[in-house]
Amino acid sequence: MDQDEYLKNRVDDQIAWYDRKSASNQLWFRRLRIIEIVAAALIPLLAAYADWNPVKIAVAALGLVIAAIAGILGLFQFQENWISCRSTCESLKQEKYHFLTKTGSYDQKEPFPLFVQRVEGLMAREHSAWAQSVRIAGKEKSQE
Predict the structure, then answer these.
(1) Which of 4, 58, 85, 98 has its CB surrounded by the most CB atoms within 10 Å?
(2) pLDDT tens digits for range 48-85
């Protein structure tokens, strides 16, 4: 695989993937947190009308929604994934720009092998961190 092919088919592809995943995780995290905040804010308001049975049901339902959202956020780790994907995406972009402008460590006669090594290292660290978080989540689930 030559340099242009690697940049297009591997680096640009991965940058786009991490960018999409980061944006998706950010969107889900923010949506769920907004719902959680609104639901929590409604409970004290509705509690003032707790003598009416439908309000009691609404308060209980809001509590259920808050508990469910907390569980979903913990299970899917949207905030952690958002930050991790964004960090990897930005690191890949930085490596790419340093390589293309031949600055920093890439100011040498044959910088391509170093570039590949660094890019693959960044992605390997991300994959390793993801696998570790899945293992930890699995252990926590089995201990419940």
Answers:
(1) 85
(2) 888 888 999 999 999 999 999 999 999 999 999 999 99
